[in-house]
Specification:
InterPro entries: Peptidase_aspartic_dom_sf
CATH topology of the largest domain: Cathepsin D, subunit A, domain 1
Strand content: 35-45%
Number of domains: 2
Shape: globular
Helix content: under 10%
CATH class of the largest domain: Mainly Beta
Radius of gyration: 21 Å
Protein name: Peptidase A1 domain-containing protein
Organism: Azospirillum isscasi
Amino acid sequence: MSDTPTSYASAIDIPVVRQPFNAENCPNYLGITIGTPSGLLHEVQVDTGSTGIVIPASLLMVDGDTTKGLVSGVVALGPAQIAYQPSGNTLVGCLYLVPSLSLGASLNESKQVVSVCEAGPLIVFGAKYAGNTSTPGVQNPVDPGMGMMGIGFGRPALSYTANAGQSDQIVYSLSNPFLAASVGGQPLYPSYLLSSAGSGLNGYITLGVTTAEFTASPFDGQTVPLTSAKPPVTPNASASTCDCAPASGTSWPAAPTQPYWLTGPAAVTISTAHDGLPLNGTMLLDTGVTGAMMSVPQARNWAANLGGAEITITVPNASNASAAPVMTYSFAVSTAAPVNGVFAIDPSLSTAAAPVSLEPVVPSSNIAFVNTGINVLLAYNYFFDGQSGQLGFATAAPVTLP
């Protein structure tokens, strides 16, 4: 292993697509355009609530034509299936090893694809069919316009294990493209910064900022350390769902790997539960949804008394518990009865970071958990350092890169 320090490219902005934040009658959304191996451009939603690129498998084929086979260099690894909850919607396809694709892509005057940076090698989900768990026998061709780019951490990334159970088994897990980005062959520091205010004219996404840079001017952010862990491995999907393994006798390619960090710490305070005292928990800022989801196993019947409650979400200062928190915001739950278990939010008594709704969910651990939704970006810039394991926040404001 070389002791030579990695030389990183300067931080860059990736332009986003669609409307700006807080546009009237439009939900907040982060999306970018990628250049796919097929040569076609494709819009994907940037989602911190998942990990990995999920696009139609045709975008990995020559000219986007499924009859022409895979683009040279793209390798089919094995069958895969995703089931989304609570909708029950499913996607069936394959995991592929993709050498490279473009981020922040567009066409120049000569109709050639140009981009801000590249990402790769990556494990990508190529979807072929869509369905629902309620009708498992019904599979329809996938919507050609669908596209998701998961950049979250602490998420159970879909995986496929080659030679499962053998001494030479290889695990392929969906990759976070922002942590494998480069410019002209020079790697970018594996981090990202998301903002509703933007760090450029149209940019809401910045790659390549180090923790030292984020905590200094002009970003002026604060961070908390994350906990590293062994990444979970999902069971292999049934081979009957998609026949896409390499030909017999083909050597399995090396699997790209990335650090795995657990979901970050938080404190949850509900005025109508636990005597209004803070409860330890974890927090996921999820840019893929506009509403919040929450579980509070430490407080009995907490959801029964949510009407009119004030809720505060805080990321405490890790080095000094008495210091001002790294991030905090509050919102008020409407006194109206929930609809299908989902509570409305009273915007007149809430801060800008408030979600559009709140849904109590079944706990998956013994401490509180909150999925904040995307609206926290209206109050804070959001930072993740995938190399040193740091989660950060800074007051949302336009920042121009040096």
